[in-house]
Design goal:
Strand order of the largest sheet: 1-6-5-4-3-2-7-8-9
Number of helices: 11
Number of strands: 9
Length: about 325
């Protein structure tokens, strides 16, 4: 078990994000694009060379499409939300997990999208079922922590490998409820098994990526991005009505690559629209209309798994060693 507080680049990074938001965002993204370009290409070339698409490295299931925060960079914040309210049907959710189990899935799983997972009253039971059916998967939860309590933490930890608590604030201080959780876990490590609890200090008004051009505080409908993107090759993105969308940057859930109410999980992952997306974006986002203005990049989890996959057997489940290392 571990619990820690992470603040990227400490006070210096916080002040940069607060007082020089656009400069900080643009500098960070340029650095990430530059340093990860070769590794991204290696994985995309590997993916496209296979006779069948390798399994996703991360499966994201959004069980409810609502959030309760006011983050300035996100269209799911309570002031910018435009999506029709949806919750995933119980039968559909259990079917998705069953299909992952039948597929032999051992990658990462999160019941999270552009939302706050604790707004779904079924979230603990959903995690329990996922853990029972996918014992070797690395299951993680990401929450803004606004309605998180110590009791909820204790309810969820038997079923997750990692609990990420994003402490969105203006003053670089923990919210009272998150401070209580942190201090309790530090004082009672034996109660929390092998779960990793990561508290991330996040600036509420931060400028991040433009999320396919639609981020409230960083909109872009003119500057075309000519970098490729890992997400169509690494992530399966499922919204509450059962459609597979492109990724987390489809904030309004407008893209459809497959409909799991009509096709199986494996069929959806290898659908014609998915194939076209992957072929088009392999040489740059400018080739795919939805993505051409998007500057999103995942500089952490996905790059780690991709590197591990390529460094091992060349099969996607080379990531098992990465999962094992994360659990130790």
């Amino acid at each position: 078990m571990s619990v820690r507080i992470h603040n990227f680049m400490g006070r210096f990074g916080w002040n940069a994000r607060k007082y020089f938001p656009k400069l900080s965002s643009n500098w960070y993204l340029k650095l990430q694009f530059l340093t990860r370009r070769k590794l991204q290409k290696r994985y995309i070339d590997y993916f496209l060379s296979q006779s069948e698409p390798p399994m996703p490295l991360v499966v994201n299931i959004e069980t409810i499409n609502r959030c309760n925060s006011t983050c300035a960079f996100c269209t799911a914040n309570i002031h910018a939300e435009k999506r029709p309210f949806r919750k995933i049907d119980d039968t559909l959710y259990y079917s998705i997990i069953d299909q992952l189990a039948d597929w032999g899935y051992k990658g990462h799983l999160t019941l999270y999208g552009n939302n706050e997972p604790w707004l779904d009253t079924r979230i603990v039971e959903f995690h329990k079922y996922a853990r029972e059916k996918l014992p070797d998967s690395y299951i993680f939860m990401s929450t803004n922590g606004l309605i998180l309590t110590l009791e909820k933490v204790k309810q969820i930890i038997p079923y997750v490998n990692q609990l990420i608590i994003n402490n969105y604030c203006m003053d670089m201080k923990l919210h009272d409820n998150i401070r209580e959780i942190y201090e309790y876990v530090k004082a009672h490590p034996g109660e929390f098994g092998n779960v990793e609890i990561l508290i991330q200090m996040r600036y509420l008004q931060e400028v991040l990526t433009n999320r396919a051009g639609s981020a409230p505080n960083k909109q872009n409908t003119t500057r075309i991005i000519k970098e490729t993107c890992l997400m169509p090759y690494t992530d399966m993105w499922i919204v509450p009505d059962g459609r597979m969308g492109i990724c987390c940057c489809d904030n309004f859930e407008t893209t459809t690559l497959a409909d799991l109410n009509k096709v199986s999980l494996k069929e959806g992952w290898n659908s014609i629209p998915y194939q076209k997306l992957r072929q088009d974006i392999a040489t740059g986002r400018q080739n795919y209309p939805f993505c051409k203005f998007c500057d999103f990049i995942d500089a952490g989890l996905r790059m780690d798994i991709v590197k591990d996959t390529l460094d091992h057997t060349g099969q996607v489940h080379g990531s098992r060693q990465y999962l094992f290392n994360r659990k130790k």
